[in-house]
Amino acid sequence: MRAARKRQCLGRYGEAAALGESALRWARRAGATEGERASVLGVLGFSLLYGPEPVSSAVPRLRTLLSRYGDQGPACRLALAGPLVLLHAMQGRDSLARAALVLARSAAAEADPRCGAVLLSVLEARLESLAGRTTRSARHLAEARDAAASLGLGPVRDAVRWASVRLLTDAGRYEEAARRLAAGGSPVVRTEGRGVACSVDTAGPAGLLARLAAAEGRAEDARALADRAVGEAAASDSPLVHALARLDQAEVLRLAGRGEAARYAVCLAGEGFARKGHVPGVRDAAARHAALAPAARRR
Fold this sequence. Notes:
By secondary structure, this protein is an all-alpha fold. It folds into 3 domains: 1-105; 112-176; 196-299. It is built from 15 helices and no strands. It has helices spanning 2-9, 13-30, 34-50, 55-69, 74-90, 94-111, 113-130, 134-150, 154-170, 174-183, 198-215, 219-233, 239-255, 259-276, 279-298. Helix 1 (2-9) packs antiparallel against helix 2 (13-30), helix 6 runs antiparallel to helix 7 (113-130) and helix 13 runs antiparallel to helix 14. The longest helix is centred in the last third of the chain and has 20 residues, at 279-298. It starts with a helix and ends with a helix.
């Protein structure tokens, strides 16, 4: 399991999933506890959600795991139902996502009501965001932040803060995003290069900081941070990490008046979303590309 988690921290989700499958076989042979099985299933679910496995094949794999391990305790059900919520949302299948959310909610209430409430708020925030319901998403993120803070879950609270910043920057509310970021203390972006979890610690924060710098007119800082985000994302096998880094880069380029370069970055983001089968992402990239067309023609 340590090896699988390490691969996840390196952004190598496909490798983490393969190691997770091996760990699951060991858990079956060794008669592992529910907690141990749930931990392995959590690695597998997270890797299928963010890794290179297309949504179209990740969903049946998760459903197979759920049918096989879902009766082995609520922690196992929660480890699989949570990623399934978001994979269905990536397909644009809201009713199936909400059905999986009902299962996740029931499992969380049975397994760990207090920590489960934090996870459920995060899941609901992501579900609403993928469906384009940003006000509801913001409300659930606030609930997750407060619940995480009350439980002393600092890393979770910080992750929720970054998610809130992304929600605000995507809405063009840059001043509010900067205030939200400052409210949590000084932003830290790690510098270990390839030894970081690109989807959380580098590609996301660096790209967001790039967009905030661009909005403040700090063009050189913005360009350096955006390039860094793209470079760090390249170390990951996640199409979603690649896509987010390119979207952030595109916004920096747009704010710098470089419409043609911004369109190209958006195209690369769309390709990443398409590889994953992320329907809302593909749709969003297409809309951004169309919106940039007049600026591109002027340049």
